[in-house]
Amino acid sequence: MMNLNEIELQNLRHIIGAHETASAKMNDYAQRCNDQQIKQYFQQSAQSAQQTKQQLMSFLQG
C-alpha cells in the first residue's frame, strides 16, 4: 500500500464508496428503463463507475 496519511485514506474510502453507490444506482435505473438507448447509457455509466472504483481500490492493495 502507498504511504497514505489518515486524511488521504479517509478521502479515498469516501470516493470509493461514492463510486459504488453511483454504480448501484445506475444499474437500478437501467433495470427500470424501457428506452434501450437510455438503458444502455445507464449500463455504461454503471460499468464506468465500477471500473473507477476498482482502480481506486488498487491504491489500497498495493
Helix proportion range: over 70%
Tally of individual helices: 2
**What is the terminal-to-terminal distance?**
4 Å
Integer count of domains: 1
Secondary-structure class: mainly alpha
Low-confidence stretches: none
The general outline is elongated
Calculate the mean pLDDT score and round it.
93
Organism: Natranaerovirga pectinivora
Protein name: Coat F domain-containing protein
Please provide a written account of the structure:
The chain is built from 2 helices and no strands. The protein is an all-alpha fold. The protein has one domain (6-61). This is Coat F domain-containing protein.
Blueprint (SSEs and pairs):
Blueprint: H1 6-32, H2 36-61
Helix pairs in contact: 1-2
Protein name: Coat F domain-containing protein
How would you briefly describe this protein structure?
The chain contains two helices and no strands. With 62 residues, it is mainly alpha-helical.
Task: List key phrases describing it.
single chain, 62 residues, mainly alpha, 2 helices, 0% strand, Coat F domain-containing protein
